[in-house]
Write a structure and sequence with these properties.
- The protein is built from two helices and no strands.
- The N and C termini lie far apart (144 Å).
- It has a domain of 75 residues.
- It is 88% helix and 0% strand.
- One of its GO terms (cellular component) is nucleoplasm.
- Keywords: Nucleus, Repressor, Transcription, Transcription regulation.
Length: 115
């Protein structure tokens, strides 16, 4: 009788160990499933937020380009601006001054060589 009670106690303890191991494994599985579901949900939220920001930036860029084009169009001139016409004596004076300076430098160079 005592031996039967001991063997029943051992069997009951093994049964309790098996039940707790199965519960532990089930809880681990449920935690892993919950973790993957949460990470997937967070990833989807982040992608949604990122796409929304990209869309807003693109819209802002398009709106900015349109506003910039409007500003440029309003500032653009209908006719091209022309410089005032200069007489032929102005361009001749510049070339004459250059010739005179070159001549003076050349004579100075020759004068220093002869010394």
């Amino acid at each position: 009788m005592r031996q039967k009670m001991i063997s029943d106690g051992v069997l009951f303890r093994e049964y309790q160990n098996q039940v707790t191991d199965k519960q532990f494994q089930l809880e681990i599985y449920q935690a892993e499933e919950e973790y993957t579901a949460e990470t997937q949900e967070i990833r989807e939220k982040l992608f949604t937020i990122l796409e929304e920001k990209r869309r807003k930036l693109k819209e802002d860029k398009d709106n900015c380009d349109l506003a910039y084009d409007v500003v440029l169009e309003s500032q653009s001139r209908l006719h091209k601006r022309n410089l005032r016409r200069r007489g032929p004596e102005n361009s001749d004076n510049k070339s004459n001054k250059r010739k005179q300076m070159n001549d003076i430098l050349f004579f100075f160079f020759l004068f220093t060589l002869t010394k």
